Amino acid sequence: MQALANNLNNTAITDHLVSRCKKGDVHAFRELYNAYSGAMYNICLRMTGNQADAEDTLQEAFMQVFRNIERLENAGSVTAWIKRIVVNHCLSHLRRKKVYFEEVDNIDVEEDTTIVDEDNFAWTVAAIKEAIQVLPHGYRTVLNLYIFEEYSHKEIAAMLDISESTVKTQYMRAKDKVRQIIKQKKVIR
Fold first, then answer.
1. Quick one: pLDDT band at residue 30, thresholds 50, 70, 90?
2. Taking 70 as the threshold, does the pLDDT of residue 111 lie above it?
3. Are 154 and 164 in contact (CB under 8 A)?
4. How high is the mean pLDDT of the chain?
5. Contact criterion met (CB below 8 Å) for 107 and 165
6. Residue at a domain's end among 35, 70, 96
7. Spatial distance between the Cα atoms of 93 and 68, rounded to a whole number of angstroms
8. Contact (CB, 8 A) for 55 and 11
9. What residues contact 28, with CB distance under 8 A and at least 6 apart?
10. Of 101, 109, 157, 177, which has the fewest beta carbons less than 10 angstroms from its beta carbon?
11. Nearest CA to 172 among 117, 90, 78, 107?
C-alpha cells in the first residue's frame, strides 16, 4: 500500500488501479482510497475547519469518486480529478453553513510591505496553521484555495460565484488577519 502511495505519479500503476476500479474491484477502491485519502483529508480539514466536518466531507467526496470512476477518461489526471471533487464537496459544505463572502467593488487593497527582521522572531508552522483555523470561513476558504490548492483568483471567483476583486480583497484581508492573530498571541519572538 505504502509503495502505491509513494508512486502515485507512476502512470502505469495509476492506470491499472483505475482500470480495476472501473471493473468494480473492491480491493482497488480500497487501494485508491488509501492512496489519496490522507492528502484529501488535509484539504478537507483546511477548508472546513474542524475534524468532524472534514471526515464527513471526505467520505462524501470519495463516495462520489467511486460512483463516477467510470467517467474518468484519463487515469493520469486522477489526482486532479479527485482533488476537484473534494474541493467542490468542501465548498458545498461551506455553502450549507452559509459562509459569507463580503462583496467589494473597486477597493484598492495594499499589501503589507512591513520589513520583517527574521532574526528577531519566527512564525512557526503550528502558529500559522492555528491562526488560519480561527479565520472567518470566507477568509479561510479563499486563503486555502489560493495558497494551498493553488487556484488563481479568477478560478476561485468562478468557484465561489463572487467577483475576482472580492477574492483578492478576501485574500489580502485573510493574510492581514493571520498576522494580527499571531501577533496577538505573542507567537512572534
1. very high
2. no
3. yes
4. 83
5. yes
6. 96
7. 20
8. no
9. 17, 20, 21
10. 109
11. 107
Backbone angles phi, psi at 97, to 5 degrees: -85, 0
Output the domain CATH number for residue 145. Answer: 1.10.10.10
Q: Give the integer Cα–Cα distance in Å for 176 and 61.
A: 32
**Cα→Cα distances 151→112, 134, 182, Å:** 22, 22, 25
7 DSSP assignment: T
Range(s) of the domain holding residue 160: 102-189
163 SS3 class: coil
- The residue behind cell 496553521 is 129
- Residue 186 pLDDT class (50, 70, 90 cuts): low
Where among 96, 111, 140 does a domain terminate? 96
Position 99 pLDDT exceeds 90: no
% of residues, the chain, pLDDT over 90? 54
In the chain, the amino acid numbered 123 is W
Predicted TM-score of the model (pTM): 0.73
Q: Which amino acid is at 99?
A: V
